[in-house]
Structure formats: C-alpha cells, structure tokens
Write a structure and sequence with these properties.
It contains eight helices and ten strands. 27% of the residues lie in helices and 21% in strands. The protein has two domains: 136 residues, MutM-like, N-terminal (N-terminal domain of MutM-like DNA repair proteins, Alpha-Beta Barrel); 124 residues, Helicase, Ruva Protein, domain 3 (Orthogonal Bundle), CATH 1.10.8. Keywords: DNA damage, DNA repair, DNA-binding, Glycosidase, Hydrolase, Lyase, Metal-binding, Multifunctional enzyme, Zinc, Zinc-finger. It catalyses: Hydrolysis of DNA containing ring-opened 7-methylguanine residues, releasing 2,6-diamino-4-hydroxy-5-(N-methyl)formamidopyrimidine. It comes from Microbacterium dauci.
Length: 291
C-alpha cells in the first residue's frame, strides 16, 4: 500500500511534470471507483493543473479554468492502486471491466496518466470535488506527522488515555495522517517498542523515542522518494525497509531474525530482540506476549 513517503513522491513528480498542463480528457474505466457525481468528472476537462498537494495518503490535483471555480481531482490508491505515467499517452481504447485501469487523464501536451488497481478486491477511490474538505476521508484526517506544528507534545496528547495498541494508533488516519502498515512497523522498530504496547501506558521516555522515530523514519523515507518517477517508488520503498516485509531475514540492528504476526488480510513485522525484550509475539489477532 502506498503510504505518505510514496504519495509525497507522486506529488513531487506530478508537481514537476503536470503543473501548467491542461486536461483534455478524463476517461472513467471503473465507475465504482468514482465516488462523486457533483461536480461531474468532465468538469476537469479544460482546466489547467495549478497545484498538486498531499492530504495524508490522498493526492489532490487542482484544475483551474478561467471563468469557473476550480475543480479538484483527488485520489486514494488504497492497498493495490498505483499511478502509471506516460510521456505519450497510449491511444488504445480502454474497455471497462477488461483492464486494471480505473481512470485515464490526458493532458494537452500528449502526456497523461492512468490510475490502476491490481487484484480482485477493489478499493481505489477518486473524486471530483470543489474542495478537499468535501472528501470524507480527508475531512476526518488527523494531523500530519511531518507538519511543523506536529510536536512531541502533540503526539503525547494524541496518545493520552488511549487503551489501544500503539500499532493501531499509528495506522488510524483520524489520529495521525499518512502512516500505514509498513511505516508503522518501521517506526516501532526504530523506537524499540512493541507493536502491542498500549498507547496510554507509554512513559515520557517512550513518547520521546516514538516521536523521534516517527519524524526521522518518515523524513528519511520522503527524502529517498523525492525525485523518483512513479515506476521506481515501490522498489525504493522495499529497499528502505528494516523489518517490514523482511520476515526470516536478519535485523539490521541486532542480527536477530525478523518475525511476523499474521492477521486476516495483512501482517506486521518486528524484531523480538530490539522491540519485545526477546519475547516472541503469538501469531494470532489481538495476542499478547507469549508466556
């Protein structure tokens, strides 16, 4: 799943490549992925891209046309979505239901992009909106952890009183925006913290470590993603992981084996030596440390 660093990489790329271009066509290939009807998706046509922004894991392109209000093309790539960029957009006809393409956007210089989604479970979503706040997922977002206003005390306030495992807190977009399964694993490894630690029980020292790990991990990942074209971002993400997706490999800090806990539709990875005092986590949902 693309998370904040990869989404920011896409935003940086689109800012450089698409700003100033006019939209000539927005072709819907998966109507179920289009979550709005007013304004219609065709309202994007004729507008020029003026800004590209990120809201958590949402990408927001503003299309501005003289004499009418701006329209925002906003999309969330979900678990298996991606953006495929073309310097010269293919002329092939899109056949709905016969392709992984959900939306094709064409620009006036011949370039463009497809929003695609692999697999059978479809959750990619895109919107035409008058304002980002009209998108429910954006309206409910918590603070961005790389925002200058996100201080150590901000994090402490978000954690206070929450009898919830810290792994789940980091992934909850209404609490902290932009962090998903992969980077929550990486942050907790860097903070030397169990994914099952309860947020409300963290000491001041724990919060200090968690705050530093969050800022440092995400800053490094955003820097690594910066300047890369969309086709290279996924591999760059995988190469930068210390524990996530590295089950059975050696922890780069202590050399212990990276272990997994599997759930219904995902898993978490951790190092027992670095994070749980050497204790192995039981491999079942809502488990605690093995006795």
């Amino acid at each position: 799943m693309p998370e904040m660093p990869e989404v920011q990489g896409l935003v940086d790329f689109l800012t450089t490549r698409a700003t100033g271009l006019g939209i000539t066509k927005a072709s819907v290939a998966n109507i179920a992925a289009l979550k709005t009807y007013d304004p219609p998706i065709d309202a994007l046509v004729g507008g020029k891209i003026t800004t590209v922004a990120r809201h958590g894991k949402f990408v927001d392109l503003t299309a501005d046309a003289a004499g009418r209000e701006p329209v925002h093309l906003i999309f969330h790539l979900a678990k298996a979505g991606w953006l495929r960029w073309y310097d010269q957009l293919p002329s092939t006809i899109i056949r709905p239901g016969k392709t992984p393409i959900a939306l094709r956007v064409a620009f006036d210089d011949g370039s463009g992009f497809d929003l695609t989604e692999a697999g059978t479970k479809k959750s990619l979503a895109y919107y035409a909106a008058r304002s980002p706040s009209d998108v429910p997922g954006i309206a409910r977002l918590g603070p961005d952890p790389l925002d200058a206003a996100f201080t150590r005390d901000t994090l402490a306030e978000l954690l206070a009183g929450r009898r919830t495992q810290i792994k789940g807190v980091l992934r909850d977009q209404s609490i902290v925006a932009g962090i998903g399964n992969a980077y929550s694993d990486e942050i907790l490894h860097a903070a030397k913290m169990s994914p099952y630690a309860l947020a409300a029980t963290l000491s001041d020292e724990d919060v200090d470590r968690l705050y530093a790990a969050t800022r440092d991990t995400l800053t490094e990942a955003v820097t690594a993603a910066s300047g890369k074209p969309p086709a290279d971002l996924k591999d760059a993400k995988r190469r930068g992981m210390a524990v996530h997706g590295r089950r059975g490999q050696a922890c780069p800090v202590c050399g212990d084996e990276v272990r997994s806990v599997f759930f219904a539709d995902n898993s978490l990875e951790y190092c027992a030596t670095c994070q749980t005092g050497g204790k192995v986590l039981a491999d079942r949902r809502l488990s605690r440390l093995l006795k």
